[in-house]
Amino acid sequence: MATISGIAHDPTGGVGPGRRDIQLIITASSLGTVFEWYDFFIYATLAASGIIGRAFFPADNQVIQTLATWAVYAVGFGFRPLGAVLFGYLGDKLGRKYTFLVTITLMGLATAAVGLVPPASAIGLAAPAIIIGLRILQGLALGGEYGGAAIYVAEHSPPGKSGYYTSFIQASVAGGFVLSLIVVLLTKAVLPKPVWDDWGWRFPFLFSLLLLAVSLWMRLKLSESPVFKAMKAAGETAKNPFIESFTYQGNLKRLFVALFGIAAGLTVIWYTAMFTVLSFLETTMRVQDTAAELIVGAGALMGLVFFVLFGRISDSVGRKTPIVLGYAMTLALLFPLFWMMGGAANPALVHASKRAPVVVSGPNCSYELFVKKQPTECGRLLDYFSKKGVAYTKASTPVTVVTIGEVPVTDISDAGLDAALAKAGYKLDKVIPTPANILLILLAILGLSALSGMTYGPVAALLTEMFPPRIRYSSMSIPYHIGTGYFGGFLPVIGQLIVAKTGNPYSGLWYTFAVVAMALVVTAFGLHESKPGTASAD
Fold first, then answer.
1. What's the whole-number average pLDDT of the chain?
2. For the residues 235-259, what does the mean pLDDT come to?
3. What stretch of H or E contains 55?
4. How far is it, in rounded angstroms, from Cα 487 to Cα 512?
5. Exposed, middle or buried: residue 341 (CB in 10 Å: 0-12, 13-18, 19+)?
6. Rounded to an integer, what distance in angstroms lies between the CA atom of residue 164 and that of residue 107?
7. Cβ distance 143 to 477 under 8 Å?
8. Nearest of 124, 128, 129, 145 to residue 41 by alpha carbon
9. φ and ψ at 189, to 5 degrees?
10. Residue range 407-453, pLDDT digits in tens
11. pLDDT tens, 9-30?
C-alpha cells in the first residue's frame, strides 16, 4: 500500500487488473495521448519550416512572421491551464473516462479545422483570427487530456508498477511529436513540392479525423477508474475540486512544487530537445528541411526508450532521484550538446563565423522586434543578419560600420553584404550533413532525450502520488499545465527574442538554463521522498 500525500491508498483496491486488461488500458490511454499531442504539435512541426507563417501570418519582415507564428503557437499553451481547471473539475466530479473522451474529441475536431482555414491571401485578417481561436480550443482540450490519461493508468496500476505503467503515457507525448514528423515527411514524399507548398501541407491537419476515430473506438472500450468508482460509491467525491485544490491541507505547497519544481523544469528540457533542436537545425544551421526532420524524428523515436526506462527505474529508486539528477546534468550538458550539434550540422558555417566574425556597430545600434522597417541603419543591418541566420556582435561607434573578419564592408546594401559574406566563406545555402556528422547530431539528440527521459519519465506517477484522489485530476492538471503552458509554451518566442537581440544563435538556451536551475532548487528542497512510490511536498 502506498502513502499518497499522507493518505493511505491502494490504487487497485488490492486486486490489480489482469494482463490483457492492463494492456488495453495502457494501449488505449497511450494511443489517445499520442494522437492528442500529435494534434497539438503538428502546428509547431510545420511552423519550423515556415509554412504556417507564409499561409496565415504573411509579413514583409521574416523575423516578425516567425515571431507571430510562434506567438500564436504559445496561445494554445496559454489556455491549457484554463482547460486544466475546466476538465479537472469535470474529471473529479464526473469521472476520468468520460472527461478524456470529451477532450480528445474537441482536440481532433479543432485540429482538422486548421486544415480547412483559407490562407490570409484569400480572407485577410480573418485567417489568423480563426487560427488563434482554434489554437485556444486545442489548448483547452490538452489541458484536460494529459491529467486524465495519466491518472487513469496510475489508478489501475498495482503497487510498485505505477512508474513503469505511466511511463508509456510520458513516452506518448514524445510519440505525438514523432508521429507529426512522420506524417509530414510521408506527405511531402508523396506529393510534388508545388502541391505540398500550395495545399498539401493541410493533409496532416485533416489526418487528425482518422486518429480521432481510432482513439474514440479504443477508449470507448475502457471502464471507469476503480479509484473513482470507489469514491463515488462511498460518496467521497469533492464538492468543488477547484476550490479544494487550494484549501486542502498542505496542498498549496504541493501545487507550488508541482508547478515550479516539476512542470516548469521538465517541459523546457523536453521542448528544447525537440522543437528548439528542429528549429535550430532548419534555420540557424541551414540544414535542408527534410533532412532536419528525418534526423530529429529518428533521434526522438530512439529516445522514447528513456522515458520508459526512467519511469521503471523510479519504481525502485524513487521519483525524486532521477528528476534532480536530470536537472543537474542538463545544466552541465545543455550548451555542450548544442555546440556539438551545431558543429556537426554545418561545419563550414561554424568555421566561417569563427574565422570571420561579423561585427555591426553604430550609434543607437538596437534591433526593434515588432516593426515593419527598422528605424535606424544599424537596426536594418541587424535585421539582415537575423534573417540570414548569421551570428553577429554589436558595438557602439559614431557611424554605422560592418566588419567581417575585421575587414570593413564598404557596400552595406543587401547585395554588397551578400557578396562580402560569400567572399569571407559564408555558405548560406541549405546543406545536408555528411553521414558521420548526422551520427554526431543523433548522439546529441539522444543525449538531450536521455535528460528529458530522466526528468519526464517518472512524472505521471509522481504527480498522481502527490495529490489525494478526491481532487487529484484538478490538483495535478492545474500546476502541470500552467508550468508547461507558460514556461514551455513561450520558450520558442522568448528564445527567438533573445537570439534576435544578441545575434548569438545559442543565447536562447539561457532561458532553458534559468528555468531548469529554478526547478532544481525547488525540487531538491521542496519535494520530500521517504521511499520509492511515495512523494509529497512536506
1. 83
2. 83
3. helix 51-56
4. 9
5. buried
6. 27
7. yes
8. 145
9. -70, -35
10. 999 898 889 998 999 888 888 888 999 999 999 999 999 999 999 99
11. 444 444 456 667 777 788 877 8
Q: What is the per-residue pLDDT across 460-475, written as a single tens digit (0 to 9) for each?
A: 889 888 888 888 888 8
The identity of residue 139, as a single letter, is G
Nearest to 346 by CA among 293, 405, 388, 284: 284
Which of 493, 487, 489 has the alpha carbon at shortest distance from 513?
487
Cα dihedral 146, 150, 155, 157 in deg (nearest 10)? 160
Name the DSSP letter for residue 281: I
Amino acid at 264: A
Rounded distance between C-alpha atoms, residue 28 and residue 226, angstroms:
17
Instruction: Please report, for the chain, how many H helices and E strands are present, in that order.
Output: 26, 8
Do residues 467 and 536 lie in contact, with contact meaning Cβ atoms separated by under 8 Å?
no
Provide the greatest CA pair distance for the chain: 82
Please say whether the dihedral angle defined by the alpha carbons of residues 108, 482, 293 and 169, taken in this order, is positive or negative: negative
Are residues 167 and 460 in contact, defined by beta-carbon separation less than 8 angstroms? Answer: yes
* Separation of alpha carbons 498 and 508, rounded Å: 5
Mode of pairing for the β-strands spanning 392-395 and 358-361: parallel
Q: Which of 120-134, 302-316, 353-367 has the highest mean pLDDT?
A: 302-316
- Rounded to the nearest 10 degrees, what angle do helices 162-190 and 459-466 cross at? 130
DSSP string, 460-513: HHHHHHHS-GGGHHHHHHHHHHHIIIIIITTHHHHHHHHHHHH--TTTTHHHHH
pLDDT digits (tens, 9 = 90+) for 32-91: 778 777 876 787 777 766 777 777 776 655 666 666 776 776 777 778 788 888 887 787
Task: Please state, in angstroms and rounded to a whole number, the distance separating the CA atoms of residues 350 and 389.
Answer: 11
In this prediction the pTM is 0.81
List of residues 6+ apart from 472 with CB closer than 8 A = 92, 151, 464
At 323, is the pLDDT very low, low, confident or very high (cuts 50, 70, 90)? very high
For the chain, state the CA radius of gyration.
24
